[in-house]
């Protein structure tokens, strides 16, 4: 956080705080790796349940809650084109190139086309944090900013749904029928998840409007946060996308529920979601750096790393 403060005060844009976080995690991970004993190393090894249930939701919720809806919906066509078509093209290109690389037999790499596509879907969600920070300082055209910001929010959700959809076909023959079924599953999951998030957001907005809960700001703020998290866990529990539900629940809450809140709750929810998102984002990058050295079940393939880079 101190480094982030220094970078902002000095207006340094060549390096971002996320890079510092990864490097910090790597240094700590390396120290743990060479230290005797493995108790601490086992404690900080990457666990997907922590990541998906604790660290990721605040970032997605804050993205939806902070979004400038007017600009987002005005440029929705462009944003959806980049988010869906752009992310798919990116996943396809990376997947095909990785598959061709595995066919060469370098470093005894054995990846099926489906595994290569799954890998491509992971890398296809770009996070333009640094670009948006530079855009803010340069005061670029608001339309350009809103398109890139909107696309960056949606492509995470698109990439995760694509990853989960493709993963279901592991161990099966990958043919045209599977591709069509996979595409229809993808759009079904995305659409229903979106509807669940929007409906839960509307229920929360209606509850605020029809009750006097604004007289109890603490309870009101808790209700908003819990309704948002309810959409995430409910969608996950019925094997849909919690990420998509949470994102659109956040958008709906800001659009319909925000004006019904008390002034104190407005300030509390905005500040709370921002703080949790910033802490989560930094910790995720530290966690990734740590995992490089604390994860014991890893294959080191330098040529593969260089090629994908």
Automatic annotation (TrEMBL):
Pfam families per the UniProt record, alphabetical: Na_H_Exchanger
InterPro entries the UniProt entry points to: Cation/H_exchanger_CPA1, Cation/H_exchanger_TM, NaH_exchanger
GO biological process annotation, one example: vacuolar acidification
GO cellular component terms, semicolon-separated: early endosome; fungal-type vacuole membrane; late endosome
Record localization: Membrane
Domain Cation/H+ exchanger transmembrane as annotated: residue spans: 5-296
Record-annotated membrane-spanning stretches: 12-34, 46-65, 77-101, 113-135, 147-166, 186-208, 215-234, 240-257
Bilayer topology annotation: Multi-pass membrane protein
Protein keywords: Antiport, Ion transport, Membrane, Sodium, Sodium transport, Transmembrane, Transmembrane helix, Transport
Main location group: membrane
Molecular function via GO: potassium:proton antiporter activity; sodium:proton antiporter activity
Entry superkingdom: Eukaryota
Matching PANTHER family: SODIUM/HYDROGEN EXCHANGER, SODIUM_HYDROGEN EXCHANGER
Matching NCBIfam families: b_cpa1 (TIGR00840)
Sequence similarity: Belongs to the monovalent cation:proton antiporter 1 (CPA1) transporter (TC 2.A.36) family.
Name the UniProt record assigns to this protein: Sodium/hydrogen exchanger
Gene name of this polypeptide: NHX1
